[in-house]
Amino acid sequence: MTDQDILSLLKDKDTRWVRIIWCDNANIVRGKAFHIHTLADHLADGIGISVAQQAVPVMADAVVPETGISAVGEIWLRPDWHTLRFPPYAPGHACVIGDMVDGAQPWQLCPRHFMRRMIRRAEELELEVQLAFENEFYLLREGALGPEPADRTVFADITSFDLNREVIDDITDALLRQDIQPERYYPESGPGQQEITTTYQPAALAADGQLTYRMTVRAVAARHGLKASFLPKIFPDTAGNGCHLHLSLWRKGRNILPDDTRPGDMSPTGRAFMAGLLAHLPALMAITTPSPNSYRRIRPHMWSGAFRAWGWDNREAAIRVPTNPRPPSPTHLEFKTCDASANPYLAVGAVIAAGLDGIRQRLDPGAPVMVDPGGMSESERRAHGVHLLPSNLAEALHQLSDDPVLREALGPELAEVFMAVRRAEWEVMKNVDLEQEVKLLLERY
């Protein structure tokens, strides 16, 4: 868009404030805004923020000393005007995603820049990754003893459709008006829990859309007197919130995941990509399930992907390969060990890096696991190459620190700062109970 196009569009929408947003290492979506009358001053360079913004944990706006970042230093949020959206829940306001730049160069701690680098690596192999985030969230009301579910229904209970119709319709309408296409909707297993899936997009668009999705769901729910939370585990005895990644591989406009020579099977490239995910999965979890709270959800027999294994239509395996009723099949992978406490740019970039390593090394994912891994004996798991995944964030961070492929992909600066932020979160929360954790994190995610 030209400068004049941007100005005309903002004026046509009666814009007063333009929010430039970013997502930090703790996965808090943040923003600064400038008034439309000062557009000329912000059009190209955007707004300055402290370098310390990438050193802040989820608990409080306080810099983690171990990041090596201090109060000295400024980077700029340069607006990517291709992401300009007008949230219908905030009339007079516009949103645009900012790229973190240091002078004229991308800042090495910018999560969006990291994801773009990994996308370019895929393009060097003539590959395009398309994906969708499968978000689950709870709708909550404020009760006498704290947050309570907005309803008490069970999975796909038609009653929930009617009880929550107005808020769900407003959420989907708001997403559509921001160029995000809802695909399927149903009430999830937990009381008050919802799932609205969206259609596939190229990886970069999907990651940008994830920020818009989260902002929209929470803002629209608030207009209905509800709280929406994507926190992985809110209630001890009900289902947790996942944010599974559904991925497909494309080359020259064609989905290359299905095997043309063996109908119903995966292509060698698809198998190698999946093998890379499995090989790096314990380290990936520090990025895709990076909250101490995440590990309350990832348990055996909870359909959350607690085992390093893959299987056809196996919802207990960390990677499920869904089958289709008619060819082509399969068309995508479901990476289950992911939730919405993950910065989408870091998660997407890390998953691409792991998958590409599998392709380069021609890794083999082994045989599919066609039973619940939680029901296998230890000897059976060893025989099938099935392993229980890290049970807490500290274990996952240790795996990431020992994974040269993912650390090289992130780059030394981003790797160290990200791990320092998440280690700080672990140290604060490792001994707290779920109730305390929920009080702290419910409205962060």
Question: What labels describe this entry?
Answer:
Creatine Kinase, Chain A, domain 2, alpha+beta, 445 residues, 12-stranded mixed beta sheet, Ubiquitin-like (UB roll), 2 domains
Give a nutshell description of this structure.
This protein is α+β, with helices and mostly antiparallel strands.
Topology:
Layout: H1 3-12, E1 17-23, E2 29-35, H2 39-42, E3 47-50, E4 74-79, E5 93-102, E6 105-106, H3 111-124, E7 128-143, E8 146-149, H4 158-163, H5 165-176, E9 182-187, E10 193-198, E11 201-202, H6 203-223, E12 227-229, E13 243-251, E14 254-255, H7 268-288, H8 294-297, E15 307-312, E16 317-321, E17 333-335, H9 344-361, H10 378-384, E18 387-388, H11 393-401, H12 404-410, H13 412-429, H14 434-441
Parallel strand pairs: 1-5, 15-16
Antiparallel strand pairs: 1-2, 3-4, 4-5, 5-6, 7-8, 7-10, 7-11, 7-12, 7-13, 9-10, 13-14, 13-17, 15-18, 16-17
Description:
By secondary structure, the protein is an alpha+beta fold. Helices cover 36% and strands 22% of the residues. It has 2 domains: 3-111, Glutamine synthetase, N-terminal domain (Ubiquitin-like (UB roll), Roll); 117-441, 2-Layer Sandwich (Creatine Kinase, Chain A, domain 2), CATH 3.30.590. The strands form 2 sheets. Strands 7, 8, 9, 10, 11, 12, 13, 14, 15, 16, 17 and 18 form a 12-stranded mixed β-sheet that branches. Strands 1, 2, 3, 4, 5 and 6 form a 6-stranded mixed β-sheet that branches. Strand 9 and strand 10 (193-198) form a beta hairpin. The model has no long low-confidence stretch (mean pLDDT 96).
